[in-house]
Design goal:
alpha/beta, Quinone Oxidoreductase, Chain A, domain 1, Rossmann fold, six-stranded parallel β-sheet, 18 strands, about 25% helix, Galactitol-1-phosphate 5-dehydrogenase, zinc
């Protein structure tokens, strides 16, 4: 089969790979229909996060069941599915407590196990989730990032009528805008320095869009909320700068939810740090997309709202490409060539 393999820093190759085979009764082999590029893929490609040289890359995908082991009951050949890429040990203290997102050895396919930038991928049966006909394969390929976002929202105290600021209008931020509305937010503020991204944020439901290059984001938020601040601020940009500035956005007693991962040290000016203490903020970190019973309600809930059109992914997708264009696409993204948002690859010609 054809696949994208990561061999080293910015060394991604499109080449042949052996097709996966059933080895355990719980194995499921999925024919990949659509697979997305995640921000973590870009980081691993550019900076070499955890990986094994030559491993098939990628983890956000949907497809059709091609083969199942003898113990698999909930899906059959031909079923349309999404794939949860998280692999947990099941044995550590966190797993035993029903907290798989905190697993001591949690990783996703595409690092130590063959991933989904390929014609076929193999997963344990519990990682394979059926999707209804009302959810197309492109949408289902984004169930995983949607589950990442709602995993974080479940940690918050957001109530209907709340105000929410989402920092960063990348793919995670655009999904966060939509989840904020689903959770009952009365007003959602999208914050980004790129006008085109803010336009997409507006398209998916943001009520106000703020460019901090015009005036500091917290000053604009305070003007728009009569000096109160928002109930919940979501950091989804993963920027060291915004990871500090986000603390100035919530009201007294408000919350900050971190979904983004800054790949550099975060220096916090006194003004921003004091907001944590003086405003008695609750600061929440969120990691991955799984809970108990595995893979968790994040997955079924994402599929539910996607099937009803409340989570829309088409506005997020900027490029739909054949898999063989992977190497130069990753090179373009890392080197700032072109205007990329969410990229979907197709192992089959469309």
């Amino acid at each position: 089969m054809r696949a994208l393999k990561l061999y080293g820093k910015q060394d991604l190759r499109f080449e042949e790979a052996p097709e996966p085979v059933i080895e355990r009764g719980s194995d499921v082999i999925v024919k990949v229909k659509a697979v997305g590029v995640c921000g973590s893929d870009i980081s691993r490609y550019a900076k070499l996060g955890p990986y094994v040289s030559g491993t098939i890359f990628g983890h956000e995908f949907s497809g059709e069941v091609a083969e199942v082991g003898g113990e698999v009951k909930h899906v059959k050949v031909g079923d349309r599915v999404a794939g949860c890429p998280a692999i947990c040990c099941g044995q550590c203290e966190s797993c035993q407590k029903g907290e798989p997102a905190r697993c001591e050895s949690l990783h996703v396919i595409g690092a130590f196990h063959p991933g989904a930038y390929a014609e076929y991928v193999k997963l344990p049966a519990e990682n394979v989730i059926p999707i209804p006909d009302s959810v197309d394969f492109d949408t289902a390929a984004l169930v995983e990032p949607s589950a990442v976002v709602v995993h974080g929202f479940y940690k918050t105290n957001i109530q209907p009528g709340a105000t929410v600021a989402v920092v960063g209008s990348g793919n995670i931020g655009l999904l966060a805008v939509q989840w904020a509305k689903i959770f009952g937010a009365r007003k959602v503020f999208a914050i980004d320095v790129e006008g085109e991204r803010l336009k997409v944020a507006r398209d998916v439901g943001a009520d106000e869009w703020i460019n901090p290059q015009e005036k500091a984001a917290h000053e604009q938020i305070m003007e728009l909320t009569d000096g109160r601040g928002v109930d919940l601020a979501v950091e989804s940009a993963g920027s060291p700068l915004t990871s500090a500035q986000v603390f100035a956005l919530p009201r007294k007693g408000g919350e900050v939810l971190f979904l983004g991962i800054p790949y550099a040290d975060v220096s916090i000016e006194r003004f921003y740090f004091e907001r944590i203490v003086r405003n008695e903020l609750t600061v929440l970190g969120s990691w991955n997309a799984v809970s108990a019973p595995f893979p968790g309600r994040e997955w079924s809930t994402s599929i539910h709202y996607m099937s009803r059109g409340h989570i829309r992914v088409n506005p997020l997708v900027s490029h739909r490409l054949p898999l063989q264009e992977g190497p130069h696409t990753f090179d373009d993204i890392v080197n700032g060539k072109g205007s990329y948002r969410k990229v979907l690859f197709y192992p089959e010609a469309k």
